[in-house]
Design a protein that fits this description.
The protein is of the alpha/beta class. Bound molecules: 2'-deoxycytidine-5'-monophosphate.
């Protein structure tokens, strides 16, 4: 079974994806980490994030086994990840890895922006997870506080909106729901309620398949 989970920044899709993967015994890939690793490699080498040639070379060379998630969540990397993600050659270089990951038995949950539209268009279940920008910003601030990082909610909101804009307006694989995605708005749901709602959608799709 392949489950595609897409949505804007800080919508809660990562936490949901992890829990869904554990519930169904599937592998999990946070595809945002791939773009973050490319961004970090480009910045560490002293290049600009929109330097297509260096970003594409970095994308071809990343090793997900060696990711340091903490370092990949740094603000400069976050901002640059959305810039490198708009470069078609970067997306192309990361495509095979993601498709091979999805194909590993017994299946996988992948979360990102283009999983249901580009990476796994034949996924068994597609979720598009959203929440209001204000709620997403508040959650991101709480998350950073838990990691000991102080953040201003207005700055975080501005960063999220800028990134959403860039991710959804780009030419290459923009952030958008697949035509057959199930929308899940978590604005008024805590993580347990969002998880229950996601499982209900997955079960409904599976039951419908068995009957059909
Ligand atoms: O999910 P995230 O916030 O960690 O993702 C970081 C950036 O990577 C995001 O701004 C856009 C990009 N991204 C993408 O373009 N496609 C994906 N499948 C996942 C992330």
């Amino acid at each position: 079974m392949i489950i595609a989970i897409d949505g804007p920044a800080a919508s809660g899709k990562g936490t949901l994806a992890r829990r869904i993967a554990a519930r169904y015994g599937l592998h999990h890939l946070d595809t945002g980490l791939l773009y973050r690793a490319v961004a970090k490699a480009v910045l560490d080498a002293g290049h600009a994030a929109d330097d297509a040639a260096h970003a594409a070379a970095a994308a071809a060379a990343i090793d997900p086994e060696k990711f340091d998630e903490g370092a990949l969540k740094a603000q400069a990397v976050t901002e640059a990840s959305s810039v490198v993600a708009a470069i078609p050659q970067v997306r192309q270089a990361l495509l095979d890895y993601q498709r091979a990951f999805a194909a590993r038995p017994p299946g996988a949950v992948l979360d990102g922006r283009d999983i249901g539209t580009v990476i796994a268009p034949a996924a068994d279940v597609k979720l598009f997870v959203t929440a209001s920008p204000q709620v997403r910003a508040a959650r991101r601030v709480a998350e950073q506080k838990a990691r000991g990082v102080r953040a201003d909610e207005r700055d975080v909101l501005a960063d999220l909106l800028r990134r959403d804009q860039r991710d959804s307006k780009r030419e290459a694989a923009p952030l958008k729901p697949a035509a057959d995605a199930h929308l899940l708005d978590t604005t008024h749901l805590d993580i347990d309620a969002a998880f229950r709602a996601a499982v209900a959608i997955i079960e409904a799709v599976r039951t419908g398949r068995k009957r059909g």
